[in-house]
Amino acid sequence: GRQHDAGPLRQRLGGLATRLKQTGHASIIVTSGESFARQFLAALHKKTLDAFRNRYRSCDIFILDDFHGLAGKKACLTEFLHMYDDLFKQDCQMVLSADVHPKSLLNVPPEVINRFMAGLVVEIGHPDSATKAKLIQHNLIRRKASFPADVIDYLSQNASDNVRELEGDIAWLSAYLHLGKTPLTPALTRELLRQKNGKAGGE
Predict the structure, then answer these.
(1) What span, in angstroms and rounded, lies between the C-alpha atoms of 156 and 107?
(2) CA 67 remoteness from chain centre
């Protein structure tokens, strides 16, 4: 983003850094729209809304992925709206993502879309091959696994641009490696991924 667009983010993260120095900790919540909805409905059913609200409304950073998972869920959207307003007043840094532009979200009230539009709206495109290679390497480090360089190159050039599907491919190939079978090659990787996706070999 442009520097003047990043100014508010730098200021808020600077405030968070100060808080970390003063208290030694910060509360960060990362969740998805569907997970938020499930937790809210469970709290509503179990009559534990106070605990649910205390957890979500006292964080320093709130990241919600796949916001469209809340679409059409009126009670969940109302709860999210009140939570958002509380967090905003507390100067919490919030990051929300969806699979479409906020104005294209269906079954979401205008007041919720307005909250989206009040922030910095950025379109994140598909990762290029260099970014995919970094994602693969990071994922492998997290899994304590290792792929040959030519396999990483093959995946970065040919695997899905969808990050979740890419992670699924890595998990599939890692499971194959753990069985102690033939070492991975680009050709074998291609065939294994065809099997994963339910395609017959040979095409």
Answers:
(1) 36
(2) 10
Rounded alpha-carbon distances, angstroms, from residue 192 to 141, 150, 182, 201, 202: 21, 15, 12, 9, 12
Residue 85 is which amino acid?
D
What interhelical angle do 129-143 and 149-158 show, nearest 10?
Answer: 130
* DSSP state, residue 62: E
Mean pLDDT of the chain: 84
In this structure, what token pair is assigned to residue 26? 């910060």
Q: Please state the pTM of the whole predicted model.
A: 0.61
Q: What is the pLDDT of residue 40?
A: 97
Helices of type H across the chain: 3-23, 33-46, 49-56, 74-89, 110-118, 129-143, 149-158, 163-178, 186-196
8 Å CB contact between 196 and 172: yes
How many C-beta atoms surround the C-beta of residue 186 within 10 A?
A: 16
- pLDDT at position 109: 94
